[in-house]
Specification:
Keywords: Electron transport, Heme, Iron, Metal-binding, Transport. With about 110 residues, the protein is mainly α. The chain is built from 6 helices and no strands. Helix 3 packs across helix 6 and helix 5 (about 75-80) packs across helix 6. The longest helix is centred in the first third of the chain and has 14 residues, at about 10-25. The structure holds heme C.
């Protein structure tokens, strides 16, 4: 059994464990490394950007994202980081780094 297969099997458990760990270890930089855009999206952004709640641009919707992408990734990242109208700061991922938020934006707009 490969490491990946094991990691995959215990994923939901591991996530809960890691979140608790980080709090217990606060200040110890005990992070397990940056999460992928897909992970961040799947844990946080999907709650609004999956269905378009509150007018959130839906993942993969060219119509919704095109005018926003035209502002440039830096502006999108600033808006996602600071909040923008009904878009909450960091998209509710309070412990996300800027890189993680950026990856999540890239995941939502992949191929557009
Ligand atoms: C509580 C709902 C909610 C969650 C959770 C959420 N968003 Fe949003 N998001 C919105 C809404 C609503 C808008 C549209 C805001 C507007 O244009 O007025 C938006 C817009 C955006 C935009 C476009 C900003 C612009 O300049 O046009 C980006 C980028 C974005 N969200 C990224 C994210 C990321 C990344 C996450 C997850 C880490 C996330 N959002 C989570 C509601 C949400």
């Amino acid at each position: 059994m490969s490491k990946e297969a094991i990691a995959d099997r215990i994923k939901p458990l591991a996530k809960v464990y890691v979140a608790g760990e980080q709090q217990a270890d606060a200040g110890n930089a005990g992070s397990s490394g940056p999460r992928s855009g897909e992970d961040v999206y799947g844990s946080f952004c999907v709650n609004c950007h999956g269905s378009g709640v509150l007018g959130a641009p839906k993942k993969g919707s060219e119509e919704a994202w095109k005018p926003r992408l035209a502002q440039g990734i830096d502006t999108l990242l600033t808006h996602a980081w600071n909040g923008y109208n009904a878009m909450p700061p960091k998209g509710t991922c309070g412990d996300c780094s800027k890189d993680e938020i950026k990856s999540a934006i890239e995941f939502m707009t992949k191929g557009l």
